[in-house]
Amino acid sequence: MQLPAQQVAVLEAASADEAESVDALAAATDLPPETVTGAVFELEEVGLVAVAERVDETIALTDEGVEYADEQLPEVRLYEAALEAGGDSDPVQMGRVIGASGLEGPQVDIALSNYARKGYGVIDSGEITADPDADPSADAEANALETLSGADDAAVESVDVDADTLEELERRGLLERTESTVREVTLTERAVTELMAGLETAETVGQVTPELLTSGEWEDVEFAEYNVEADAETFEGGNVHVLRQMSERVKDVLVGMGFQEMDGPHADADFWINDCLFMPQDHPARTHWDRFALEQPSHIDELPEDLVERVERAHREGIGEDSEGYHSPWDEDFARALALRGHTTSLSTRYLSGEEIGEIEPPARYFSVEKAYRNDTLDATHLLEFYQIEGWVMAEDLSVRDLMGTFEEFYAQFGIEDIQFKPHYNPYTEPSFELFGTHPTTGELIEIGNSGIFREEMLDPLGVECDVMAWGLALERLAMLTTGAEDIRDLHGTLADLEFLRNAEVTY
Ligand code: PHE
């Protein structure tokens, strides 16, 4: 009998009395397990082997699980610190106990959310108690972590931990289950007969090559059959990042709505970032609040002198009869200081002033999808750098309805039909409002943007005579609405969830 080489190798390695796993056969034949699986399927089809399948479930601790196995669960550390502080007799101040426990960052929340559930004590109005009868050495989760640490990829049946505890650990992300199909192979009687009679190796070809085609050899060779059921190696190829996909899509939508793209410096003078926006120089955002200052170089070389003069006058005296200005100090050196832009509205001031591409005639529409930088505290909805979808429309007689209509049209392109508006304040717009969208899985309202109609005090010095409505929307927040991500840090930064980025579906 003639068979392809891999099948012959598998038959010779398998046995009639003992079932051998595909992995064992792969080791014995020195073939990759996928190849062995393919050969086994074909041999099964012609009745030369019998295959038994079973699904094995193995479990292993995640990195976080290993960490707690080494250093105790956060709630146990909190309990011990609370006992130490005398929480078994009187409630003690929570801040003190957390400080003494050494718990930091997300571990504090983890400890708090498991503390009462496990009966370690009560947390109420900033105070914590420790139940003297609680016993951390009887903590089922802690004991399970200890049992499981070191037992990597253990079969579920082999570990001495009850199913509820395993489930709880899995829910907390401390444990992962993996299912795999194990196939075991035995030779059939027919195979034994064939082996005794002697097997020959048939040359089969796995791939059509240009050489086979041009030489005409393809007519004589035997092709290996495809087996679409054989397990293949997992292939994790490159993928366009979720945010990149979003940003491309946003640009397409805005271009489709008649907008042109703006471009400009990430590090810019405060003049363009703030002063041109009628932001007073003593505004908290401009002193310490959330600014990344540049040290080297620290100041911009050039600013258009006549514009500087007009902006200064607007700040000091206001524009027109009804406007007062700030009557506050205004210092050109302060305006020349360089910083990473805290919003991309600096691009809008540069374009509106005529500085970038000359004077712009109405009607005009411009946008950018670019990075902005803020010294915020990192959390589920804030990053230190993020993308803003900046935009503005210049035309005669614009109203709030035009602005709302533009957002409705824009967000509808992403399947978001329920945006909500809330009145707001910006020094540079009047009226102003913030935009909110509903998170598709948590149902929470999240802020997705800020907008308004630019004030006279801003537009007049820039030399703009008609109305301009404008906005800054958050690309990451839009991505949270379209992908269902619940934490912005899953999308980018050092904590990004690779699994999520590989598989997330961007819906629009
Ligand atoms: N610059 C504002 C922000 O970062 C957004 C905005 C731009 C608001 C233009 C109104 C007009 O929040």
Automatic annotation (TrEMBL):
Highest taxon above the source species: Archaea
Which PROSITE patterns does the UniProt record give? AA_TRNA_LIGASE_II
Which GO biological-process labels does this protein carry? phenylalanyl-tRNA aminoacylation
The EC number(s) given in the record are 6.1.1.20
Give me the reactions it catalyses.
Answer: tRNA(Phe) + L-phenylalanine + ATP = L-phenylalanyl-tRNA(Phe) + AMP + diphosphate + H(+)
* InterPro entries associated with the record: aa-tRNA-synth_II (IPR006195), aa-tRNA-synth_II/BPL/LPL (IPR045864), Phe-tRNA-synth_IIc_asu (IPR004529), Phe_tRNA_ligase_alpha_bac/arc (IPR022917), Phenylalanyl-tRNA_Synthase (IPR002319), WH-like_DNA-bd_sf (IPR036388), WH_DNA-bd_sf (IPR036390)
Q: Which residues form the Aminoacyl-transfer RNA synthetases class-II family profile domain?
A: 250-496
Supply one GO molecular-function term: tRNA binding
Q: How many cofactor units bind, and how? A: Binds 2 magnesium ions per tetramer.
Q: Which UniProt keywords apply?
A: Aminoacyl-tRNA synthetase, ATP-binding, Cytoplasm, Ligase, Magnesium, Metal-binding, Nucleotide-binding, Protein biosynthesis
Principal place of residence: cytoplasm
Q: Which residues bind L-phenylalanine?
A: T345, Q388, I389, E390, Y428, F454
What's the subunit arrangement here?
Answer: Tetramer of two alpha and two beta subunits.
Q: In which family does this protein belong, per the annotation? A: Belongs to the class-II aminoacyl-tRNA synthetase family. Phe-tRNA synthetase alpha subunit type 2 subfamily.
Q: What protein name is recorded for this chain? A: Phenylalanine--tRNA ligase alpha subunit
Q: Which organism is it from?
A: Natronorubrum texcoconense
